[in-house]
Design goal:
alpha+beta
């Protein structure tokens, strides 16, 4: 077995390729005498920059490459001779094939004693050495059994002791031949193993504890990598889209657009079918009247005619015959397709993709369910409450004053060019209420829908010309002068949720129950849908604000992700401002465009984000 150990050591140290760690195949020798597989060395050299030199993978010495290439280096004759010798040795009969006691053919092998045994001698051997490791001759010859840790690498004898001075196992020959100096302290293998087992357990525990820290670090680093991969993927997609001259990403929006069209189509079909049923019901009634009149007129009896006439002269029947049908609404039969705006920003925007950082926040004191927000000309923060009142805060969160403390459901607030507060009251048809910069009440203006009926408000916004834009809960948007007098109004397809005005003279409108955002003119024409951010799975636009050629939109859908997203005033997507808002409410951009103020309804806070 000592011979086998030596052969194994030779095979590992001299006949293995440094590059692939496998047994050398077609060995090539470099001038430094290190040997490598031909294919491994050729691949190694192919990947290097300098093709005229080859650097030894083992010692890093360089050597000029022959004209013939790597094949020009000589074969390693020493390695080849060793391989042939090893092959011959492997073919020779294995030692210990006879029983070391009686000389008969061995059937088993004792690893501790390193001796072969026949079955009879094994029985006696086992009576005294039950803990010895016994294997079959077949296992021994197959190479599955190793003497590593059991047999001395120097003398091939069973190890008995452990030299603590040299930290190695020793056999009796090591002691008698003084390979292990006599003054060295030695203990039995069992004693050494018990002591080392405790040390190994301690090391194992320390390793496990430290491994947890490294795994945490790996997880955190993987998150950074995931973010980088996501950013790379997004940026690459945006750049490719820009390169293709902003072609509409039909594959991303097709299902959603078709779904919206089908929804409109189904609703209109239902309305038209209901109208047809109403008309058919009227036709059925008139057919009955016509039939009754025909029967009476066909009668030859004056008594019958005069008797039935009272029925035919009934007021309701006469009104039925005189009622003209309502003309069908031809607009229901038309669906207008407007080409989709591009969701990818120009390259100029991409290259200067901005980052926003949460720089400050404060808790909104003594105020429940804050919802609307705007900034006055002094930089103070004006917040409305769905529960009660309006409060004005300094930047550090101190309440400067409050007003309308006895009012509830104050949906929204806007600050005019004259530093007046216009509050949208969402209760009891109270309309728009005007207050001075210190909160003093000025006036109230009722707001009417397209039919002339007053309704509660859902939103209010101010444009650059101090015109007031109000949203009503019954699908109407009205435009007012600075004093509140009505300029115009138009119907929307559904209930407006929040409004804002762009610097290009368009209205931005989100809807209460619809998953899209629209840009439209002040007459409601040329309405077009703003595409959702590519990274958002569920898009439900909420509060909006505009400024400096940009549109900021809050996504009300939690976890998909909720947050604030930024667009150009034309509706092209620029990027995510933040997802550090649980339930975003009112938004306002500072006059210099460097800070965005956001109400977080869940946290009852105002959060301030700075443009990096």
């Amino acid at each position: 077995m000592a011979e086998a150990a030596v052969l194994q050591k030779i095979k590992k140290n001299l006949l293995s390729c440094y590059i692939c760690s496998a047994e050398l195949k077609d060995p090539i020798c470099l001038p430094c005498l290190h040997a490598f597989c031909f294919e491994c060395l050729e691949t190694w050299h192919h990947d290097s920059q300098d093709k005229t030199q080859v650097i030894c993978p083992a010692c890093k010495k360089s050597a000029p490459v022959p004209k013939e290439g790597i094949r020009g280096f000589p074969g390693h004759f020493l390695v080849q001779n060793l391989q042939e010798t090893m092959d011959k040795k492997s073919a020779e009969p294995m030692q210990n094939s006879t029983c070391h006691v009686c000389g008969k053919e061995a059937e088993v092998h004792c690893v501790e004693c390193n001796k072969g045994l026949c079955q009879a001698c094994h029985t006696y051997h086992n009576a005294f050495t039950k803990d010895h490791h016994i294997v079959s001759i077949e296992e021994l010859q197959s190479g599955q059994v190793t003497t590593e840790g059991r047999v001395c690498e120097v003398h091939g004898e069973q190890v008995r002791y452990y030299c603590e001075a040299e930290d190695k196992q020793v056999c009796m020959d090591c002691i008698s031949l003084k390979t292990c100096p006599i003054e060295h302290e030695r203990v039995t293998i069992k004693e050494a193993a018990m002591k080392q087992a405790d040390l190994i357990d301690g090391l194992k525990k320390k390793c496990a504890d430290n491994k947890d820290k490294f795994q945490d670090a790996i997880r955190d680093t993987n998150l950074v990598l995931d973010t980088l991969n996501d950013t790379m993927k997004q940026t690459k997609t945006e750049l490719i889209s820009c390169k293709e001259q902003y072609k509409c990403q039909v594959d991303q929006v097709f299902d959603r657009e078709i779904g919206m069209i089908e929804k409109i189509y189904k609703n209109r079909v239902k309305d038209i079918e209901n109208k047809i049923k109403e008309l058919e019901s009227e036709v059925g009634k008139m057919t009955e009247v016509e039939k009754l009149a025909s029967n009476v007129s066909a009668s030859t009896s004056d008594f019958i005619i005069t008797y039935k006439y009272s029925t035919l002269s009934n007021k309701k029947l006469n009104e039925l015959c005189l009622t003209a049908p309502v003309a069908p609404n031809e607009s229901l039969g038309h669906l207008t397709f407007t080409s989709l705006p591009m969701i990818v920003p120009p390259v100029g925007y991409l290259l200067e993709m901005e980052r926003w950082k949460l720089t400050d926040h404060f808790t909104i004191k003594e105020m429940e369910e804050p919802v609307g927000l705007d900034l006055n000309h002094d930089g103070d923060i004006v917040v409305t409450s769905f529960v009660k009142g309006v409060k004005v805060f300094s930047r550090d969160g101190q309440v400067k004053y409050s007003f309308m403390d006895d009012c509830t459901i104050l949906i929204d607030v806007a600050v005019s060019g004259g530093n007046r507060y216009i509050v949208a009251n969402g209760r009891d048809h109270k309309g728009l209420q005007f207050h001075t910069s210190d909160g003093t009440y000025l006036s109230r203006v009722s707001v009417y829908d397209t039919s002339g009926v007053t309704y509660n408000l859902s939103s209010v916004a101010i444009d650059a010309n101090d015109q007031i834009i109000a949203g009503l809960v019954n699908n109407t948007i009205s435009i007012h002068n600075a004093d509140g007098s009505l300029m115009s109004k138009f119907a929307t397809q559904t209930k407006p949720f929040r409004l804002a005005a762009t610097s290009e003279g368009e209205i931005v409108c989100s809807y209460t129950q619809e998953p899209y955002l629209e840009l439209m003119t002040y007459t409601g024409s040329n309405a077009r849908t703003v595409q959702p951010p590519p990274e958002v799975k569920k898009w439900m636009p909420g509060h909006v604000c505009c400024g400096h050629g940009e549109i900021f939109v809050a996504n009300r859908s939690k976890g998909d992700p909720s947050g604030i997203f930024r667009y150009t005033s034309e509706g092209n997507y620029l990027g995510c401002v933040t997802t550090q808002v649980n339930t975003p409410g009112g938004l306002a951009l500072s006059q210099d465009g460097m800070e965005l103020f956001v109400v977080d309804i869940t946290d009852c806070q105002v959060k301030i984000f700075h443009r990096a």
